[in-house]
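Why does residue order matter? Because the sequence determines the fold. Keep that principle in mind as you read this record.
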Amino acid sequence: MRDRAARTRTGLSVKTAEPDRPTDPRVHVTVSQLRALENSVRSLRFLPRQPVSSVFNGRHASRLRGRGLNFEELRGYLPGDDPRTIDWKVTARTGEPHIRVFSEERDRPALLVVDQRMSMFFGTRHAMKSVTAAEAAALAAFRILDQGDRVGGLIFGDALVAEIKPKASRSARDQLIAALVRANQMLHADAAFSDNPTPLNLPLSKVAKIARRGFLIVVISDFDGIDAKTTRLIGDLSRNNDLVLCPVTDPVSGDIPRNTKLVVSNGDLQAELDTGSGDVRKRLTEFASGRLNEVLSWQKRFGLPVLPLTAGEDTVPQIQRLTGIGPRSSGRGR
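Structure:
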């Protein structure tokens, strides 16, 4: 939504952030909580030349394109120049070796697509998935600005979308954090049920119109409600941009408790599920794992990095581990 009135109606005007309110940091994020993450991003990279253990490394997925290259000049070859930069046509025409000099393109735009729908307002061990997503987005925003690129985003809930245009400024960072906090704090157990929740395809379609070529796009979501159209959108976005997917899950999806009666609700209706039933457990497990498996299949199909995050542990060490920094975990929630 581009006009100010529309953003105000959704409750996601992003000019300023409201003062922090007392809250449980595992359930809702605050401005100070997200800003405190800035000191943790110095070692994170969203560019090529990743450590061997990083998911960005070519062994795990195709490397990110990184910034583009701008042609600077054509000059004579000097000892020590990379032979791969030799312009063979000019060399043949002049009889002297010449190379083409390029400079790295600066100020690449990045879009953070962050899911704050009610499906994200769930957590069983450490935090809500919505909190993990907001923290991961803040970390990415800080790192992107730190490496000299522009950062913007689409923060979406069940009935709203807040758009922040990419800028290389602290104001863009502050707008993004404000939008994250407000969308996150709108999630609560008594929130009104929406007959038309925002499908993931809506923000992805908006991104497709904005990011024609050369963007870094980071999608942080539980990928609820994906379908064939989602696969097409992911493929189209990855074709001309650097696309990173961060599926957020909760440990319970990979370890459904036995002999427990679970009450589930969509905010309007509720039902009781008996996990003592083998058939019920099988169906719940297939439902929980199917979504993540589909996202992981995009990694192979489109050659893009996937960083699986869990709401069952702190966000910072997870991202450090996934990008090749710090010890590996022996296991992770699905």
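The two ends are 33 Å apart (CA to CA).
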